[in-house]
Design goal:
Blueprint: H1 36-44, E1 46-47, E2 49-54, H2 59-63, E3 70-73, E4 78-85, E5 88-95, E6 98-100, H3 106-122, E7 126-133, H4 139-143, H5 161-176, E8 179-190, E9 193-196, H6 207-210, E10 213-214, E11 216-218, E12 224-226, E13 232-234, H7 237-250, E14 253-254, E15 262-263, E16 266-278, E17 284-295, H8 302-305, H9 309-333, H10 345-349, E18 359-366, H11 373-386, E19 390-391, E20 399-400, H12 401-424, H13 432-516, H14 522-726, H15 730-812, H16 815-863, H17 869-897, H18 918-923, H19 929-941
Parallel strand pairs: 2-6, 2-18, 7-17, 7-18
Antiparallel strand pairs: 1-19, 3-4, 4-5, 8-9, 8-13, 8-16, 9-10, 11-12, 14-15, 16-17, 17-20
The structure holds adenosine-5'-triphosphate (ATP).
Length: about 950
């Protein structure tokens, strides 16, 4: 049943605003509704429909036999409340438009009372149904009912007004095969704060977050709308039931003494329907109707509901809304000038439903229990009074589809602009007319505030006046009652007096009759006489007391009368004063209102003229703007051309710059190449030199080795010769030997000196040539460095000029240029970095070559260990001293020690012969040149000076061939 066929999507109009029956569509239909009653309604006004529903006694109430004090007569549409005051039963009867007794069913109430209203909604009316009553009397039961979802196509019997209305709407639209769209809103008013029950929940855990209060705004046309209220587009009844179930659970409920699940808030569920219709001319029109279903919070007084602490405040706020509702109803019924709609949000929201253009139905709910009688009577009074409110229902203007679509488009535009403003966070977008309106409102709002204050004080005074009036009425009633009772008392007293007189007369008549009878006994007579006298006394006493009390009563009544008269006089005087004052206030107030009206008119005129001026200004501005735009466009094209030429110039500059960069790079590469060639040749030369030096060293070593070997050999031979001839020609031989040794040593020393001198000169030559070549290299390096620096400076200046040019270009250019420039500058910086890198590389290669140079010098320094002259001299002197010692020793040996072999004719004494061993002689040999070099290097490492210039006897420890042996 919910698969209704929709001919096309319809878009609902602006959010959360009740469609206005009075609003004229710009291109709306001119045709009237065609409903004659509507014209009538419009002129006369239609009374709000008030329905009364009495719930049955609850199980608990039945269990304790709670007395029932309400009786309903559905046929006569009457409700009677039985009141027992001072043991007197007072019945109060109220008549309503419809009455539903305790046994009434949900479906009956819907069919009889609500269904016609739903039909009117579908005809294009705005209708409101609200449930009013004490807590626990069945407001929610009536509006929502027990279960919502229909089983097997039919509702459960306790389904309330809302689900039934929804189903009727969908059924009717389906039956009409209508093209329509529908949206629903659901809000809650709690403690004077509005929350959106349809709003998505922000957090599962935080109840308060999901119930963010939202603002009630003036729409500038006298109405209100709830800003940002969520609207849900619905296409099936099922969707609405789901929404209802979800939202109902969100409503604030609490347990009170009177209801376990008491709704602590007012809720308004609204359904807005747009239906497409076609005129006979084939024009498409949109009809719009809205149904507001309001479930008010309990109207009970705070103490009875059992509300405590926070709940008491809650009840206060609820009551504030309901009190204002009551005051609004009073004001509307009494046609007083001021209706305090603005005093509560509830009345602001329901403004159009109370005395406006909406069709309204109040369902007042009551309990039959005696315990609720006071509240029940209040509800009955309230509802009964509300019956007199007159609304002027108007069917909503039908709109042409095209006009509606146009409106919607402009709405979408506005929303888009608002959205973009909200996104960019640069304020709020306001359409021009809205802005003007807001400005006017800003001016009006302080006046309005003053007016509100005045209205407040006026309504206070009004209330006080009413209270005073009612007290006076009460007092008057009391006086009349007292006068009446006084009269009755006086009459009673008179009656009593006459009765007493009669009785006295009767008794005296009796006595006379008795006196006349002689036969009566004296004793009896005396007794009777006594009795008579006693009776007479008592009668007199009674008479006295009665007359005293009567006089006292009289006095009292007179006093009271006097007091009352004076009180009434005072009150009348006060009332007159109040009346005069009220008149004055009314005059002031009406003057104020008139002034306000005048001001509002002026403001309106002013705003109109401002709008006109603004329009003309806008027109002129738009022309100027057009011209300006044209000139801007022209300038733009010029600028574009300039930009293009700038760009081409820049491109040229860039090409030049790139070329320069390229050349610079080529130059750098060539220079590097030549450097590398020079370096290679230098290294080759170095190689050659080092190999030469190596050869020379080897040769000199070899020569020295050979010479030493020869020396050794000769020395051995000589030693052998000497040994052989020692025995024969010791002295001679020794002399010869000494001379030979001297000569030989001299020769060796000379040859060594010569060889060393030759080696030194050759090495010095090599060193000087190496120094020359390194100097040469250094010079070349310096020149190359200068050149490279020059090139790199050139490159840097070129890059700098290029960068400056680009920056200029950038300053003048567009964003594209900026991009280009950034590319160029990055290229320039990359080129600069390249140049830097190249120069760094060059510097590092220079450093490397310098290091190489230094290392070479070090190598030369460490490898070339040339014995100096001093050393040679020392060596020579060492040898000289050595040979002297040898000479001395040999002399000793030969002259003293060998001469002992002369014949003494006795066995010669055993003597120890100190003959040098073979190892010792081996030790005397000069070590090989490599070993010598090695030991020298080691000595150098140990911190001794290699050159040995300042050290004495550098070779003494290493080789002391001719030290003291013997
Ligand atoms: N006409 C009725 N027939 C049967 N039961 C009813 C009827 N009216 C009310 N009830 C029952 O009375 C109880 C209270 O009703 P409900 O919650 O609708 O009261 P209420 O007026 O909405 O109270 P509150 O203002 O505290 O929310 C519920 O259990 C409901 O089922």
């Amino acid at each position: 049943m919910e698969n209704h066929q929709k001919k096309g999507p319809l878009i609902p109009i602006s959010p959360s605003q009740t469609p206005r029956s009075g609003e004229k569509s710009s291109k709306g239909s001119n045709e009237s509704n065609g409903n004659p009653s509507s014209k009538n309604d419009k002129e006369k006004g239609v009374n709000i429909q008030v329905i009364l529903r009495c719930r049955p006694l609850s199980e608990d109430e039945m269990r304790v036999n709670t007395p029932v004090v309400i009786s309903c007569n559905e046929n006569r549409r009457e409700v009677a409340a039985v009141q027992n005051i001072a043991n007197k039963q007072i019945d109060r009867t109220f008549t309503f438009d419809k009455v539903f007794g305790p046994s009434s069913q949900q479906k009956d109430l819907f069919k009889q009372a609500v269904s016609p209203i739903v039909t009117e909604v579908l005809e294009g009316y705005n209708c409101t149904i609200f449930a009013y009553g004490q807590t626990g009397t069945g407001k929610t039961y009536t509006m929502e009912g027990g279960a919502i979802k229909a089983k097997d196509g039919d509702f459960p019997s306790d389904a309330g007004v809302i689900p039934r209305s929804v189903r009727q709407i969908f059924d009717t639209l389906e039956a009409q095969n209508a093209e329509y769209s529908m949206k629903v809103t659901f809000l809650e008013l709690y403690n004077e704060e509005i929350t959106d029950l349809l709003a998505p929940e922000e957090s599962k855990f935080s109840e308060d977050k999901s119930k963010k209060p939202i603002a009630l705004m003036e729409d500038g046309k006298g109405g209100v709308f709830v800003r940002g209220l969520e609207e849900e587009i619905v296409t099936t009844a099922g969707e609405i039931y789901t929404i209802l179930e979800k939202c109902s659970s969100k409503r604030r409920t609490a347990e009170t003494l009177l209801n376990k699940q008491s709704s602590r808030s007012h809720s308004i569920f609204s359904i807005t329907i747009h239906i497409k219709e076609s005129t006979p001319e084939g024009e498409e029109m949109i009809k719009c109707g809205k149904l507001n279903l309001v479930d008010l919070a309990g109207s009970e007084n705070i103490s009875r509901s059992g509300a405590r602490d926070g709940r008491a405040r809650e009840a206060g706020e609820i009551n504030k809304s309901l009190l204002t509702l009551g005051r609004v109803i009073n004001a509307l019924v009494e046609h007083s000038g001021h209706v305090p709609y603005r005093d509560s949000k509830l009345t602001r929201l329901l403004r159009d439903s109370l005395g406006g253009k909406t069709k309204t139905c109040i369902i007042a709910t009551i309990s039959p229990s005696i315990h609720c009688l006071e509240e029940t009577l209040n509800t009955l009074d309230y509802a009964h009074r509300a019956k007199n409110i007159k609304n002027k229902p108007e069917v909503n203007q039908k709109m042409m589809k095209s006009a509606l679509i146009k409106d919607l488009y402009s709405e979408i535009d506005r929303l888009k602009q608002e959205l973009s403003a909200a996104r960019e966070k640069n304020g709020v977008y306001l359409p021009k007319d809205r802005f003007v309106q807001d400005e006017a409102l800003k001016k009006i709002s302080p006046l309005k505030r003053k007016l509100d204050e005045k209205e407040h004080s006026f309504s206070d005074l009004d209330q006080r006046y009413r209270q005073a009036k009612s007290t006076i009425k009460e007092k008057e009633y009391l006086i009349s009652y007292l006068l009446k009772s006084e009269k009755a008392l006086v009459e009673n007293a008179h009656q009593l007096r006459s009765e007493l007189h009669n009785a006295a007369a009767d008794v005296s008549g009796l006595f006379s009759k008795l006196e006349r009878k002689d036969s009566i006994e004296d004793g009896n007579i005396a007794l009777i006489k006594r009795f008579h006298s006693q009776l007479a006394e008592q009668l007199n006493l009674l008479h006295k007391t009665v007359s005293a009390s009567v006089t006292q009563q009289d006095d009292n009544f007179k006093r009271i009368e006097k007091e009352m008269q004076s009180f009434v006089a005072v009150k009348i005087k006060a009332t007159e004063g109040i009346n005069v004052w009220i008149e004055k206030v009314t005059n002031v107030y009406s003057n104020c209102i008139r002034n306000m009206d005048v001001m509002a008119d002026e403001l309106m005129d002013e705003s109109q003229s401002t709008i006109g001026k603004l329009n003309s200004q806008i027109l002129s501005h738009s022309c100027a703007l057009e011209d300006c735009l044209k000139s801007i466009a022209l300038e733009g094209t010029q600028l574009l051309d300039e930009l293009k030429s700038d760009l081409s110039k820049m491109e040229d500059k860039l090409a030049n710059f790139t070329r320069q960069q390229h050349e610079g790079k080529v130059r750098a590469v060539e220079a590097t190449r030549s450097i590398s060639m020079i370096a290679t040749s230098f290294f080759q030369v170095l190689d050659v030199h080092s190999s030469k030096m190596d050869n020379m060293l080897k040769e000199s070593g070899k020569i020295q080795n050979e010479q030493l070997y020869e020396l050794e050999k000769k020395f051995e031979e000589c030693a052998a010769d000497e040994e052989r001839q020692l025995l024969i020609k010791v002295e001679e031989l020794l002399k010869d030997s000494n001379a030979r040794r001297k000569r030989m040593v001299q020769e060796v020393v000379d040859s060594l000196r010569k060889g060393a001198a030759e080696g030194t000169t050759a090495l010095q030559k090599e060193v000087s040539s190496a120094q020359d070549s390194s100097l040469n290299m250094r010079e070349k390096w310096c020149s190359y460095m200068e050149e490279t620096e020059k090139h790199s400076n050139e490159d840097i200046t070129a890059a700098e000029t290029g960068r400056i040019c680009l920056e200029d270009g950038l300053r003048n250019g567009t964003e594209a240029n900026q991009l280009l420039c950034s590319n160029l500058s990055s290229a320039a910086s990359a080129a600069l970095q390249d140049a830097d890198l190249a120069s760094k590389k060059l510097l590092s290669s220079v450093d490397n070559s310098c290091n190489l140079d230094r290392r070479m010098a070090e190598t030369i320094g460490t490898t070339l260990i040339i014995p100096s002259r001093e050393e040679l001299r020392q060596l020579e002197s060492g040898h000289y001293h050595g040979s002297l010692e040898i000479k001395e020793n040999s002399k000793n040996c030969l002259e003293k020690e060998y001469k002992v072999d002369e014949s003494t004719c006795s066995t010669p004494k055993r003597r120890s012969m100190n003959i040098p061993s073979e190892e010792f002689i081996e030790q005397l040999r000069t070590p090989a040149f490599e070993e010598l070099l090695k030991s020298l290097k080691q000595a150098n490492v140990e911190g001794k000076q290699i050159s040995g210039m300042n050290e004495s006897h550098p070779f003494r420890d290493l080789r002391a061939p001719l030290t003291t042996v013997n």
